[in-house]
Write a structure and sequence with these properties.
single chain; 9 helices; 7-stranded mixed β-sheet; alpha+beta
């Protein structure tokens, strides 16, 4: 694993053009925990009756935890969220179908059995997934994840006509970005909002790291046009004061 780009500058530019409140996060998949990167070491809680536990309630919680530090994770760390474990590539659906969180989703109709096979997932089981601020990534990431509000999502949508707007489960945008090279935004999902602690105003967008330069160029152009239109609208609105 190596670093070929100035990801710190990319992170600064992305934060500036979107006026991000939370830093861009680098997500990197590898065959084993990378040397020199500390493992996430929060304690495991008592297992649920069906045996589930993990170091956080769900893998999407690592998006929040990694805002100010870089760490690696393994399958066991993600184990509390069955859907997330499948999406991130650590398990397949047959391994989790009997778990109580999956049963709750199916029984309530939150997701149906026929939809489950259509959910994008990481196809090659990773040995580790590393999370951390893009500013300090020690190697080229696979995916850059940002947390955005409605205005920032508007700018992304205007700048990136091929961006896909997705719903539940929120974590599958990471699989879309890594596996299909798709820029994918999510409105979030009820499961993720509770388990990650994301605010009601926040949404997410996953960007294939290899496309970040292209994304930034489009955002800068669109933000310039938006600024000019907003300036005109502000002046025009003075007539109504």
């Amino acid at each position: 694993m190596s670093k070929t780009q100035n990801w710190s500058q990319f992170a600064l530019d992305l934060s500036n053009v979107l006026a991000l409140e939370a830093p861009p996060i680098a997500i990197t998949f590898s065959e084993a925990p990378p040397a020199g990167v500390e493992a996430f070491d929060a304690p495991f809680p008592e297992p649920s009756p069906d045996g589930r536990t993990g170091r956080v309630p769900a893998g999407c919680a690592f998006w929040i935890e990694s805002a100010d530090k870089t760490f690696s994770t393994i399958a066991e760390d993600h184990g509390n969220c069955s859907v997330g474990s499948v999406v991130i590539g650590f398990k397949n659906f047959d391994e989790v179908v009997g778990n109580s969180d999956v049963a709750a989703m199916l029984e309530t109709g939150w997701v149906t059995a026929d939809v489950v096979p259509q959910i994008p997932v990481i196809t090659e089981k990773p040995g580790a997934v590393t999370y951390g601020p893009l500013t300090e990534t020690p190697f080229d990431p696979d995916v850059v994840l940002i947390r955005v509000n409605g205005e920032q999502l508007m700018l992304l949508n205007d700048a990136l006509p091929d961006m896909r707007l997705a719903g539940k489960p929120q974590c599958h945008i990471v699989a879309l970005a890594k596996e299909q090279g798709v820029i994918a935004a999510s409105l979030g999902c009820a499961l993720s909002r509770v388990r990650s602690g994301m605010s009601a105003e926040e949404m997410t967008c996953a960007i294939p790291a290899a496309r970040l330069g292209e994304v930034l160029a489009a955002l800068i152009t669109t933000a310039g046009a938006d600024g000019q239109v907003a300036s005109y609208a502000g002046e025009d609105a003075l007539r109504f004061s």
